[in-house]
Amino acid sequence: MVFILPIILFLIGLFGVLVKRNLIKIIISICIIDYALFLLLAMIGYRGEGMPPIEVKGIEYVKFVDPLPQALVLTAIVIGLATTALLVAIAVRVYQKYGTFDIDKIRKLKG
Amino acid sequence: MSYIPLFIILPLFGAFVLSLVRTRRFGDIFANIINLSLFILSLIIIRFGTIVYKIGGWEPVNGIPIGIYWVKDGLSTLMLIIVNLIALMSTIFSVNYMERFTEKNRYYCLFLLMLAGMNGVILSGDMFNLFVFLEIAAISSYSLVAFGTESEELEAAFKYQVMGTIASSFILLGIALLYSYTGTLNMADMARVIAIKNSESGILNSVSSISHFQLVNFVCGLFIMGFGMKAAIVPFHAWLPDAHPSAPAPISAMLSGVLIKALGVYVLIRIVFNITGMTPVFSNILLVLGTLSIMGGVVSAIGQWDFKRLLAYHSISQVGYIILGIGLGTPLGILGGLFHLLNHSVFKSLLFLNSGAVVYATGTRDLKQMGGLNKRMPVTGNSSFIASMSIAGVPPFNGFWSKLIIIIACIQANRIGFAIWAIIGSILTLASFMKVQRYAFFGPLNEKWKGIKEVPGFMRVSMVLLAILCIGMGLLLLPQVREVLLNPAVEVLENGIEYAKTILL
């Protein structure tokens, strides 16, 4: 049932992307979507009372947490960083051209 | 055997070198050499069968794969050839076309990164590795759309990136759920586990069986949304008509010609056919989405007067044909769909290069202001005539054969309704390209364009080569030639979830 929580966070981010009219708020909503996915991935790897998956002499291992999703989260964070950086860079250039962050005023392209 | 990593190493190495060097001529020569060698490599690997390359040499433990696999089978060979062919033609075209932009080497750097991402997506046999390469290709394509940094281009790039990032999030969510369910990321192993759980839940028929099918269907829904957005199938197509025309012409050719197919169509059919297994429900979903795309794209295209925007709408409609053919699930339908994928890459990139040549010579994209360009630019005019006839499906050219196969496959599978929609779409495409030819290339020469010249040599070379391919590619259907390229690709999809057995030896 705990898995509902990141899904709710995901939906909040999706709502923000669809409803907000400001470029920066859209970017923040996309970040929220990313965080929801990172949390979901980290939770998938969790095992109740699991040990960290690092081998130390003299300790007996009964239960590990799954290390693979943790590696995936790190990769996903890096990808999220690249996406956000490029989005912010484009938003800055858009502001220089249009003088506004309001997407209702940024419409030179016709349908 | 060690040819496989070169498809990713070479373009990554080229991108690294080009980001350091500022000399203009060096960029032209270096990028073209890398793309030429990639194309030759993709021709060399045709003669090998299925190759599995394990990164780092990690062998499976107890039959369970633990490393990342790169897999080359019939379908990936077909995709590799077409991706690297179009990339080579686009870089040849860029030599002259990109002269007017500053920072040409940065352009080649992003181009090669995008190519590395696409080759990686096609070769990857591991779900998360696939996602990483997909993001490499997608992020470099966002920045290439914004390359001109004019206001329209920035606006289109922002829209494209927001839609693309949402699509990637759906894909990552689907991958996370699949991993938590199967406990593996290897695509072949995933297929094996899902097949086992399928048969178990069929026998037990308990509460768990309901949740099994619910979960697999939910994940497939996420993938159809995510990859459908990347492939611009109709309910998810809103970004394409803005993004593709805004990019520089060789990039439009890459985006419309191969990117939407490598990131969207290819991965979607790989997952639906080889991992979760094709069911009648998905077949129907794909057929309906394909038909919607055919009609939606072509109807929006008819009223367009912007040359590149019109071509972008036709991309949506032609991807619909591919989805329709493959969605039928019969061998003939898959053959038609894959062959149309090949053909569409060639003629759509040729058309975008033509539009680039027109913009290069006249500086306008508005069809109403052109007129009689054939008299001043015979190479551009004639090659665009060939491409227009191909996309409209006029007999001797390649587009006719693939559309014919798709329509025959529809009729054989007793789906007459879809066949009729496909024919209507084809007629509307013909009408729309008659308009392009009439207003842009035939008719009296517009007074304004008295002084224009034909475009420079390298641009002409790539257009002529693609036009020759448009005429000659129907030959790929001859029985002996088909054995080499198309049949292995069709077999991969026909085998369905047997894919797992060929990889996990």
Considering the chains and any ligands shown, give keywords for the structure.
heterodimer; A: 111 residues; mainly alpha; Helix Hairpins; 64% helix; 0% strand; B: 505 residues; two-stranded antiparallel sheet; globular
Walk me through what this model shows.
Chain A is mainly α and 111 residues long. Chain A has a single domain, classed as Helix Hairpins (Orthogonal Bundle). Chain A has 3 helices and no strands. Chain A is elongated, with a radius of gyration of 20 Å. Chain A starts with a helix and ends in a 13-residue tail after the last helix. Chain B is mostly helical and 505 residues long. Chain B is built from 21 helices and 2 strands. Chain B has a two-stranded antiparallel ribbon with strand order 1-2. The radius of gyration of chain B is 22 Å and the shape is globular. The mean pLDDT of chain B is 89.
